[in-house]
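Complex record, two chains
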Amino acid sequence: MTDDVLSAPHLVEYTYTRSTGPVIGTFLTGLRDKEIVGIRGADGRVIVPAIDYDPVTSEDLSEYVPVADTGVVTTWSWNDKPAKGQPLDKPFAWALVKLDGADVAFLAAVDAGSPDAISTGAKVKARWRDERVGSITDLVCFEVTQ
Amino acid sequence: MRGFQRPVAIVASASFETPAEPARNEVEMLLPVIQKAMGEAGLTQQDVGFTVSGSSDYLQGFPFAFVGALDAVGAWPPIRESHLEMDGAFALAEAIAVLQHDNIDTALVYAFARPSRGELDRTLALQLDPYTVAPLNPDARGLAGLQAQAMRDSGRYADVPDVPPTYVADGATAVVLAVGDRARELTATPAWITGIDHRIEAPALGVRDLTTSVSAKRAAEHAGAAGADAAWLHTPYPHQELLLREALGLGDRPVHCAAGPMMVGGLERFAAAARAVAAGEVTKALAHATSGPCLQQNVVGVLEGGK
């Protein structure tokens, strides 16, 4: 009987595929190519990053609008002690940045050097990672241009 | 939500808060708080029709961590139970909805957290959009700073305070609710919740007007909060008192603000408002709680005294 031991392969695997979906996927894929893609909301506003549903009416959104990688700071706060996993390892500003061509700002780091060098209304330009993979972190941070 | 078919009152409550609980785990911290509130109401767990809690599994660091907290309640024989990954005040709103069923007349609501064991600013980043925000690991204090600066830039607020480090404390709050005559049996001084409503705004910070709170304002309108004598506001950061005062139209009426332990502070504001109503200090109190970055989600309740 001992010659007839039953056996079966045991494969440990993670059987789920996680997808960002068509809209966030389009936005993230754009970043890989240094392109920032917004989407037109139900009220006509261009929302960046592109989102699946209108934030007020919940309608499906589908009209993509490319925007520039330059824009203005709409509000900011100074981060004296950058923590592990944050965009920069030296003090920087968190900011909401409204890109040229967009009507809605989004969260990003601004490498301003000191809190005196940033203000609401400051013009900024994106600093891109050299090796981009289609992630929000392809956009390293923004730099103040004036 | 107001004008309840079955009026609901807070009949007892208990709270515990400490900067950093050195030894006891969440269950050990929660047990005496629940026992105190239940003892005050003269109830045992088997008398309670519905049990609901608010807490964050991220703070304990493993999935379904809240299930372990049921050891502080005693879940055998089986009980009817629910949980929210939100401040306990939102669990209280769920309990009030459930108490509109005519076969349930009491509920236990509790909240607990022990964030001193980790880095709260970083843990809260896990609540954010997983694709476009969380990968940047923004600290909660930094996000609150965006709101404070937007308030300064708006010119509508005088002297917006600087944003201090995110408040960290450990603690628990338990609240016992009862309906109608059952509430009158359990206490001589029920604090009736005559209205409650919760509203949520879009998760993307850029699509919201950070200088006000549309959701808190709307929740207050739907809860019937106009004309409250005083307000108990849940303000994780000090500048949010100015913002909420304006959004809720409180003028110069007295407000009692506190941050409280994460996930607990809001329910504790409801408990504090109920104590003031029960003591006859106010006749109509507004209680508020928030969850999420920059006041993203808000619940407003109205508490009134009387038989």
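Note: Chain A touches chain B at residues 20, 24, 27-28, 47-49, 51, 55-56, 74-79, 83-87, 94-96, 98, 104-109, 120, 135-137 (CB under 8 Å).
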